[in-house]
Design goal:
CATH class: Alpha Beta
CATH architecture: 3-Layer(aba) Sandwich
Number of strands: 2
Number of domains: 1
CATH topology: Rossmann fold
Radius of gyration: 13 Å
Oligomer: single chain
Helix content: 25-40%
Order of helices and strands: HEHEH
Strand order of the largest sheet: 1-2
């Protein structure tokens, strides 16, 4: 999987992973838990911190707070 290979690069060692799961306003969109399962994040190195936040750029739900957290 491309994400897995990317995260194995030495320059990303110890980097945290934040995934913004956009389009949560659309019926049938994968939930953050489903995305974690598809990406097999639970099997990732336990020293890497990761989080998936569901959001919607269309409705603004959680999108603004996520972007504000990135700037903090």
């Amino acid at each position: 999987m491309e994400l897995d290979n990317l995260l194995k690069e030495e320059r990303l060692s110890g980097a945290s992973l934040l995934i913004l799961a956009n389009k949560q306003d659309i019926k049938g969109a994968l939930t953050p838990a489903e995305i974690a399962k598809v990406l097999n994040l639970e099997a990732m190195d336990k020293t890497r911190h990761w989080k998936i936040i569901g959001c919607s750029a269309y409705t603004g739900e959680r999108a603004r707070c996520c972007l504000a957290d990135l700037h903090a």
